[in-house]
Amino acid sequence: MKLEKTRFGRIEIKDDAVLEFGEGLIGLPGKRWALLSHADSSAFMWLQSVDHPPTAVPVTLPGLFFSDYEVSLSDADAELLGIERADQAEVFCVVRAAERIEDFTINLRGPIVVHGESRRGRQIINELAGYSARQPLFRNVEMAQVKPASPAAPMAATGI
Amino acid sequence: MLVITRRPGQQLLIGEDVTVTVLEVSGASVRIGIEAPSDVRIFRHELWLEVKHENQAAAATPPDRLRLTTQEEITEQCL
Fold this sequence. Notes:
A: mainly beta; two-stranded antiparallel ribbon; B: 79 residues; alpha+beta; elongated
């Protein structure tokens, strides 16, 4: 399907790339979303609203940055998503992409849990203590080593 | 806002499916029990608000801001 008037202009989304969020994302419009990625496999993706094209949020895989990140999924949430085993869950977190890379933060408090097979997702409040909604992402990285990537390649809906 | 005073052990019914029980009052805290169908979500309000703010701030990100290093380079440096 084609989405017009997104922040990236007009984009093409495969129908089977659409994820259903029964309650949407907290505070944002729309129940259907799709993951968009750059063709050069950047760690960051956009979660694009299918129902409300001007809306999109940057997301990333928290495990890339925090290898011991844990999410506590309630039985009700697991059942709703059709998740029976931990390895069926894919977890994304929303990123605040600041102007300076040092100021990027990730929301570890409100992860987005998705079940690739059922195409269902839900943003939950992670009850495990100590996780911040504004956790700095690049605190441990030597800034001199982080290079800008090549200019943005065309957006493509990614299969998960 | 509807304001009601309850004592420990007393309950409130919200709609017909949500029951709130005041369990215990101790100092400045009150312990509250909530029975609701599993499809009714219950949040600590301040956490929900925090996530909402972060979502909305993230949704305001200029589309050209994510020009970053590749996944391979990030995993080397951060893990």
